[in-house]
Amino acid sequence: MAVRRISSTKVILTLLAAVLLAMPVIISQDPRLLHTFVMAGLAIILATSNRLVYFTGSVHFGHIAFYAIGAYTAVLLVTKLGVLFWFAFLAAGVVAGIVALAFAAATKVKGFYFTLLTLAFVEVVRLTITFTPALGASRAMRCPPPNPITIPHLFTIEFATRVEYYYFILVLVAITLVVLYLIEKSQVGAALSGIAQSEPLAESIGINAARHKVLTFSICAVFAGLAGAFYAPYATVIGPSNFTIWASVIIWFQMVVGGADSFWGPVIGAVSLVFLREFMPGTGAYENIYYAVAVLATLFFLPGGLVSLPRVVRQKGSKGMVSLRLRERLPKRVLASLVARREKQGGKGDTASR
Hints:
The chain is mostly helical and about 350 residues long. The protein is about 75% helix and about 5% strand. It folds into 2 domains: about 280 residues, ABC transporter involved in vitamin B12 uptake, BtuC, CATH 1.10.3470; about 40 residues, no CATH class. β2 and β3 form a beta hairpin. α2 packs across α10, α3 crosses α9 and α4 packs antiparallel against α9.
């Protein structure tokens, strides 16, 4: 059975990769849909990398701050210093990672206070951009497109249309998912899981919880910085309004809707909410209503996120969604005692009928 499951997964991933590679041809007549796929790719990078911090048991709302740091680093290096975009792109990830490393190393608080601190950091970054003339202040800054990629005697890739950006983000998403998956399945991932379950117990067996959390926070920020460096030339103009606290909250909405406890949950949640935003009628306040309804519906009917939907459908015939939700909320000991009591009552009923 295990071999079949692995082979079917490989087939599904291969088919999905083939469809994604052919997507610009399939939707060539709908540039808006191609733009939606690009924005979904950005959302996947932000949501999955933010989950890496959640994997350690911390709630991090400051992810959008490192997204902004990456975007402005790339813009400044390209426009002010004349650096090639591809060097600026890599530098954006490094700068975001270094800032995150310093932030996490200097932060001694945990739990709720850490969450508040990350929220405050988003506002600090946004206000710094707003009141710094070198960063454009409250005005938008322009970013030129990436330098063409030329392979002699073969082809040249010029970022003149959304198709080139689509393949760019596709490669970036693939790298992000592979790296994060390898981290989660490695010994480092096992250590992070142990820290999330019980930090004192993890330290008692020799795991340096503080060092693991700092490095994880930094790795998470590197991917956010790279995503920001991609977004700057794609959007052509960036400003402080692109990097607000609400943008950080949306990242968490995507994780919750998809299922934060699963590796693929943030991917599903990011794609779902991006497409919901793009194709539902209305903008502004209406988008917030859509997000709120999606999150509330998920929390009530699918506490495990959309990624748990197949399991819910399989079990719906006998118990239903609400019953499943109650079973997931109950502690294992309580659930075991209820099952034993039901079996005992069933046995008595059989005896009486005889």
